[in-house]
Structure formats: structure tokens, C-alpha cells
Design goal:
globular; mainly alpha; 3 helices
Length: 60
Amino acid sequence: MPTSPTAQAVAAIVRMTGGNFRLLHRLFVQIERILRLNELTVITEDVVEAARSTLVIGVT
């Protein structure tokens, strides 16, 4: 079970999604996938960036 995300990860998520619920959902699906594949338990900014790189998201 993942623990709380780091403050930097939260800031990155807010910056990337801008509160868009659909985008937020898509990003968290990818974050969960990356955590599971890499056997990680903490959501870090690197994990968020890796998840973002798999999605088609405009530059913000």
C-alpha cells in the first residue's frame, strides 16, 4: 500500500493537472502502475514525472 506522497510530488501533480479531474484520474492510474512495476511504496516527484511522460499532456 503506497504511503503519502512527498510535498514535491503533490506540487507536481497540482501543476500538471491544474485540477482537471479526468487528467488527475489518468495520472494516478499511471502512478499506481509505475509503483507496482517498480515495487515502490512512496509517490515521489520522479514517479509523477514518469507517469506524466506516458500520457499525452500539453505543456503547462
